[in-house]
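Q: I'm writing up a methods section and want to include an example of the input and output format. Could you take the sequence below and give the corresponding predicted structure tokens, formatted cleanly so I can copy it straight into the document?
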Amino acid sequence: MARTILVSGGGRGLGAAISRTLGTQGFNVIINYNQSEAAAKALAEEIGNEHAVAIQADVTKREDVERLVQEGTKAFGQIDGVVNNALIGFKFDPTAQKAFKDMDWEDYQTQIDGTLKAAFNVVQSVIPQFMERQRGTVVSIGTNLYQNPVVPYHEYTTAKAALIGFTRNIAAELGQYGINANVVSGGLLKTTDASSATTPEVFDLIAQTTPLRKVTTPQDVANMVAYLVSKQADGITGQNITVDGGLTMN
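A: Here is the clean output for your methods example:
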């Protein structure tokens, strides 16, 4: 029986690459979207409506997430894994990024809600069925900027750093129920909607200082996510796996 994976923010950018890769590898995919209805529904049709469904929900709202999980479960019978990928209102634009002295706490709070609160909502809503079946997988999307802030995207990087702590704590507590939890931290991706404002100079700098001499692609990250939600990765939990061509090394 094919595993069913819920991908938050799964209709565009990195989320679309993850959804498409999962569909290609035989998973059922629940493509969550907030505003990108046309893109999400087109992607579900591309994957095949018998293996994909697009469902609207604002993952920062618990009631929306409860409905998302209920509708996704109804569509495929159960949910076997979730990918916390949704990105709320952030662009990787080095020229527009505020200096720390000019920031408000609300800048941080927006990213904390979009990253940490969203993951909290999704995981809490889905773990009852994981615990009942003694099996489930959580993958959250992090960033290598946590280790190497090439551009100091303060609020984004801080929220993603918190996601690592969140993931390791749930891995420690929920492992007894057969639940895995990991983070996949990509480099700056070339190119997604969020990184469309990144200057060529920044991409060139990253490529020149990366051992593989290339910028990470959405497909690079999607391949790792697909591995972590597969049976082959059942023995991996509590890890922050970096996919950035060796720019950062653990």
